[in-house]
Amino acid sequence: MSWRDGLELTRVINASGKMTHLGGTAVTADVAGSMAEAAQDYFDMEELIVESGKKIAALVGAEAACPTVGAAAGIALSVASCMTGTEEALIKKLPVTEGLRNRVIIQKGHAVDFGAPVTQMIRIPGGIPVEVGCANMVTRADVEEAIDEDTAALIYVKSHHCVQKGMLSVEEYVEIAHAHGLPVIVDAAAEEDLHKYIDLGADLVVYSGAKAVGGPTSGFVCGKKGLIDGVRLQYRGIGRSMKVGKEAIAGLLCALEKYVAGNVDALSEREAVVETIMRGISGIRGIKVSKKYDEAGRPIPRVWMEFTEDARISAREFVSQLRQGSVAIFTRDHYLNLNCVAIDPRPLRPQDSEIIIKRIRELLEG
Ligand SMILES: *Cc1c(COP(=O)(O)O)cnc(C)c1O
User: Fold this and answer.
1) Whole-structure pTM value
2) How much is the average pLDDT of 237-262?
3) Ligand 1 proximity of 20 Cβ (cutoff 6 Å)
4) Which numeric CATH code is attached to 11-20+265-365?
5) Which CATH code for domain 29-260?
6) Among 79, 184, 265, 329, which one is most buried in terms of CB atoms within 10 A?
7) CB of 72 sitting under 6 A from ligand 1
């Protein structure tokens, strides 16, 4: 008897990345074991959140931290904390923010959709996003001009989704904010470096547990002690609707310890998977195969397939057919408009590469 019985589920090979719509990360047996163990036990949940926060903080080198159900929740709770602090009466009132500082500044090129709009996460606790500058160009003056007595925080989004030029650096952003006595929230959801933004002086940094860290559906916020207290206390208010479970906390801690110890997919393993697939699909008419590194600067190599005129089918048709087999293969399709398709090595399991190679040859060689 399996929980899958009776469900018509497609078998999925994820060659796309750490994608929420494909289930984030397939966790290791250790991580799954920690989750099962926690699931079968009881806890004082406030204590579990406090204690796990201390452990996360120690692992990432921050003053304090708080587990969340994901990075999106982390953004909402961080904005809430910047508005209410630790004052319980204010926490209970959200999303009503009358009389509170509630404006949150964001650079236009950072106001992206990661699966949902970042600005919507700001609005959940009652924050008002204030987009500054232009989509491809933001100046110091644009940010300074927008700061007023109702500004609660400035948010910086580090992501491949963002415009990758013309934006202020985190360093400049932190400097401007601190000169005005305001906190900076960094959305570093998918970033691999868990220390960088804390080291650069960010006040709250938000991560997803299911992306680089390789944990279950989860996340955390780390940063300054007072603001993290404010994040945690939101669980008695709007945070209740984004409650983090004991299983998620257990799995996150297990994955995070391994990640910080460097025990998960090293760059050399990623390179090896990319090389294997590149070799396997070389010499096919109509596609130029090369290796390309992540556009947001993370150490992620990917197989890059560029479709030319004489390909048997178009890139668009190719990705659509890949998803239709008895095993659905999802590629990374951000550049489909340029007739390019990428294969991400990170989520692939050992047997996946051969299946991908075989299917690509079937589709493109007929
Ligand atoms: C994935 C992502 C999020 C949301 O993370 P979840 O853990 O899925 O809630 C937020 N911001 C950015 C930039 C992301 O890439």
Assistant:
1) 0.91
2) 97
3) yes
4) 3.90.1150.180
5) 3.40.640.10
6) 79
7) yes
